[in-house]
From TrEMBL:
This is HTH gntR-type domain-containing protein. One of its GO terms (molecular function) is DNA binding. Keywords: DNA-binding, Transcription, Transcription regulation. PROSITE patterns: HTH_GNTR. The keyword Thylakoid does not apply.
């Protein structure tokens, strides 16, 4: 695991722990199959187990970990079948959304999208995965 342990006191603890663990899993800093302990994570962040438990539940809901009652929590292994399935579904959805958006987009929104794509390219070139993922989920209306 990474050594990041500083939490912002103005933000919900469970959400911060979720984001940090998610990043560590996505970057393979926590390898697939690795056991995750609520106790160890709560010690790492100097918090009670409740926000850790909430973060684990959200990670499980997003398919990043598996919680096995009485046996522990583990980082999910990567399934190539799921990757292919997800890519197929995502491509179909994104094509449909793009067609719909193209018929409704304003000039200003089009410019914002172009800027976002440019920033995504820069993030990828500089291997800034966090920035790239954030840009991918940024709304042009935000």
């Amino acid at each position: 695991m990474t050594v990041e342990t500083q939490l912002n006191p103005t933000q919900p603890v469970n959400q911060q722990i979720y984001r940090i663990l998610r990043r560590d899993i996505v970057h393979c800093l926590i390898a697939p199959g690795t056991p995750l302990s609520e106790k160890e994570v709560s010690v790492r962040f100097n918090v009670s187990r409740q926000p850790v438990r909430e973060a684990f539940i959200k990670l499980a809901e997003n398919g990043l970990i598996q919680i096995r009652p009485q046996r522990g929590s583990y980082v999910n292994k990567i399934s190539m079948a799921q990757v292919r399935n997800g890519s197929f579904i995502r491509q179909a959805i994104e094509c449909a959304v793009a067609r719909r958006a193209a018929s409704m987009i304003t000039e200003s929104q089009c410019y914002q999208l172009e800027q976002n794509l440019h920033q995504q390219r820069i993030a990828i070139e500089h291997k800034q995965l966090d920035d790239f993922l954030n840009l991918m989920t940024t709304s042009i209306n935000s």
